[in-house]
Amino acid sequence: MNETEEDRADAWFHALSDRTRRDILRRVLAGEHSVSALAASYDMSFAAVQKHVAVLERAGLLTKRRQGREALASGDVAAVRSVGEMLTELESLWRGRISRIDELIAEPELDHSSAPPRRPTQED
Length: 124
Prior knowledge:
The protein is mainly alpha-helical and 124 residues long. It has a domain at 3-79: Winged helix-like DNA-binding domain superfamily/Winged helix DNA-binding domain (Arc Repressor Mutant, subunit A, Orthogonal Bundle). The chain has 5 helices and 3 strands. The protein has helices at residues 3-16, 19-30, 35-40, 46-58, 77-106, and strands at residues 33-34, 62-67, 70-75. It has a 3-stranded antiparallel sheet. Helix 1 (3-16) packs antiparallel against helix 4 and helix 2 (19-30) crosses helix 4 (46-58). The two termini are 35 Å apart.
């Protein structure tokens, strides 16, 4: 993963770290909503909802378009899939490590009493 991808991942997880933003994302993934309609769903100011929408937009998880005086927001399914793929990759990495630990635990203990003594090497 290069620096740009890491920056994008930081933006995704920052955006998704807030429950209001996750809720907004769920709504706009289900269908396009005006920002004012979204604001009516929350017990916070319109400006606060606009800020949450802006964070999601900067992260690339949501897109906005203008229709007359309204700003309409839609979820970006491809970006959400990318987040899911990244999480799946991380899960796979950890599952591999856990499998290796399980294999090491399951290995019978070596009998060190019959092995010849180990001679020190120059690396020691």
